[in-house]
Amino acid sequence: MTDVFGVIGFPIKHSLSPVMHNAALKRLNYDGIYVPFEVKPEELETAVSGMKSLNIKGINVTIPHKEKIIEFFNPEKEVQEIGAANTVDLKSGKCYNTDVYGILEAINAAEIEVNGLKVLIVGAGGAAKASIYALRDTSRVYITNRTETKGRAVAGKFGAEFVPLHALERHKFDLIVNATPLGMKGFQSAMPVPLSLIKKALAVFDMVYNPPSTPLVSAGRKFGCRIVSGIDMLVYQGARAFEIFTGQKAPVDVMKKAVISEIENIG
Ligand SMILES: NC(=O)c1ccc[n+]([C@@H]2O[C@H](COP(=O)([O-])OP(=O)(O)OC[C@H]3O[C@@H](n4cnc5c(N)ncnc54)[C@H](OP(=O)(O)O)[C@@H]3O)[C@@H](O)[C@H]2O)c1
What is the pLDDT of residues 181-196, one digit of tens each? Predict the structure, then answer.
């Protein structure tokens, strides 16, 4: 019987996951299909029982369900710490946060050795928390955030140091990570940090992947920084989810090609 996988979120129509996972299933000749499901916040619990009854095998989870979904499944260690999951294996009942893997693999793909680096993470939401979790054992992690109280709370909880936006220019960071929507298509096209900081950095990492060349990425290129790709993060978090779902090695190149071509198509 064909295995059914999917992604739940609200809204869901712009998700690149279906294109990415269906390309991977096709490449492996895996008898499966990956479908987007729009689930309103108040319908999450009903959707979870529906998934179980319908024998859906695996689900990715996006905004606004990443926190609430944990209540229905067994969280892996990183999910317990971060407080958010993006992947559910319905066969085992476990939920995972594969963004952590996506972040580390994307940095690895840019040939950056994170040991001992001074890293600045901009943002204090789910993606920022996953970044601190991924990097705090190897790097010196700092965060900054528009809402200072929230930034300080996240820094305190996760063992990072908080730097207010107005004090950033006194520092020099090796790697600057944008974990806010600044630069995203249809959002504010702004730089998340002052240009002087990018000038001093070794590398920049923009989690925003559409457009592929954000203001942060363009400035990083201009100043000769290494670029960690948000597309790579998306692809690697998807690849890890694919492996959890199917037990097979993900065809990463096929998934990346599908994502890039979809971004070019949707413009
Ligand atoms: N490449 C990937 O695979 C991948 C994976 C996950 C997320 N992402 C991207 O990462 C970004 C953050 O995702 P998330 O899930 O962490 O979101 P989130 O939980 O909603 O957090 C958003 C963060 O961005 C800040 N922010 C929002 N609007 C801002 C603005 N106009 N100026 C300055 N800061 C602003 C918020 O600051 P306040 O606290 O002040 O509100 C908050 O810290 C999104 O753009 C998402 O698409 C990419």
Answer: 999 988 888 999 999 9
